[in-house]
């Protein structure tokens, strides 16, 4: 019997690499989708390619969309990324790195590909704990998208496909995520999580994303093998 | 008092021009979004620019996304567009011009921009009658997207915005749509509906979309002012 196909959203970061690792461990044939949305750095795309290669994906599609045209986020505009914030500062209100409707856009694209592939399963590495400020990382958002997916598509309406959005990390802490990935032999040295990496992928170690990642490794008493500058 | 903002999805075709005309007639300040998704022709983009100009939109953003990377539709691949089909043939099963998850992707992008603009209102010219084969043109899909939108966004979750997806054409026949647009002074000569237009925007008159449009004008006893080759 041939393997079931799954579309995995792959950013090049730690979480999506882990979610993809989970999909692989569950026996899916992986179709990796990376969306380049006007990031200021290409280091993440390079990381996504390394992770896709590491996981032996069947196909890796990188598609571009210019969310900068809409403005509104540090990750897609020229606003400086905040550095060295405490966890209290990070948890206060919405992160300025919030990208409007990002996961809605990403999941829509994953859905389009899943329908063409006749894949029922979409994996996304969203996490409701460390990114509590992002509304589109919450379980109720994911359930609403799953409902939409089955109304939005030819195959869903015809009953040929029943889409499932898998979020294996949604209620895990960062250290739980890292432990899960290590158990699945995910090589985190190939990932780039930093909001402000150098061109060759060295992390800053100071932005919110780096600080959360470093704390996750520290909580496990393990050194992060990714390069920092 | 300043006008409320609305994001209008503008394809350059007859339906979206009419939906945008309705938004304008209701007093909204228009922000037009055109998504170029790997169409084989740029005539639609030129038409969208003409329509945006005609309607006096505040801003017109054209963003590109390559749905061709996923394959799966005559509108985004090299499959020939069917010509000269009867209404029975058109209504039999799904049109091969169906684009997977297209309206989900388009509405997601409109939502991203609406959140940045602090616009509560999104207009889309979907129609459940003439495009009965498209699942993402049905009222239940639109309601599911509206529900998603209010869970997906910072402003929705904070209660600052309550998104509404307006579908003023959803239950109208093509001739009803045309009559509505004519009442609102929409100049249909500027629109391109054809699936296979020439480079300078002349319609083929033979594809499903042209045949439905021409029948709509004929039902009203009016000549379509758009150019045909």
Strand order of the largest sheet of chain A: 3-2-1-4-5
Question: What sort of overall outline of chain A do the alpha carbons produce when their principal axes are compared?
Answer: globular
| CATH homologous superfamily designation of chain A | HUPs
* Number of helical regions of chain A: 8
**What is the CATH class designation of chain A?**
Alpha Beta
Q: DSSP strand (E) fraction of chain A?
A: 5-15%
Rg of chain A, nearest Å: 17 Å
Biggest sheet overview of chain A? 5 strands, parallel
Output the helix-strand order of chain A. Answer: EHEHEHHEHHEHH
Structural class of chain A: alpha/beta
Which oligomerization state do the chains in this entry correspond to? homodimer
Uncertain stretches of 5 or more adjacent residues of chain A = none
Total domains of chain A:
1
Greatest interface: A-B, 42 and 43 residues
Q: Average pLDDT of chain A, to the nearest integer?
A: 87
Write the layout of secondary structure elements.
The structure is a homodimer of 229-residue chains.
Chain A: E1 5-9, H1 14-25, E2 29-36, H2 43-55, E3 59-64, H3 87-91, H4 102-117, E4 121-123, H5 139-152, H6 154-157, E5 164-166, H7 174-183, H8 208-220
Helix pairs in contact in A: 1-2, 1-7, 7-8
């Amino acid at each position: 019997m041939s393997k079931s196909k799954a579309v995995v959203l792959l950013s090049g970061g730690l979480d999506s690499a882990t979610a993809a690792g989970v999909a692989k461990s569950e026996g899916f044939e992986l179709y990796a989708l990376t969306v380049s949305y006007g990031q200021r750095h290409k280091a993440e795309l390079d990381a996504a390619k390394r992770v896709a290669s590491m996981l032996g994906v069947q196909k890796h599609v990188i598609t571009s969309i210019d969310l900068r045209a809409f403005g509104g986020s540090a990750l897609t505009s020229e606003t400086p990324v905040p550095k060295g914030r405490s966890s209290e500062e990070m948890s206060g209100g919405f992160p300025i790195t919030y990208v409007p409707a990002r996961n809605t856009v990403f999941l829509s694209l994953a859905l389009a590909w899943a329908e063409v592939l006749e894949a029922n399963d979409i994996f996304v590495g969203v996490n409701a704990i460390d990114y509590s400020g992002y509304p589109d990382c919450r379980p109720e958002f994911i359930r609403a998208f799953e409902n939409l997916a089955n109304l939005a598509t030819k195959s869903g309406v015809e009953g040929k496909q029943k889409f499932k959005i898998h979020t294996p990390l949604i209620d895990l802490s960062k250290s739980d995520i890292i432990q899960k990935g290590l158990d699945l032999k995910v090589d985190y040295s190939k990932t780039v999580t930093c909001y402000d990496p150098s061109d060759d992928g060295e992390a800053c170690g100071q932005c919110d994303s780096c600080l959360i990642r470093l704390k996750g490794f520290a909580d496990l008493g393990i050194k992060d093998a990714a390069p920092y500058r």
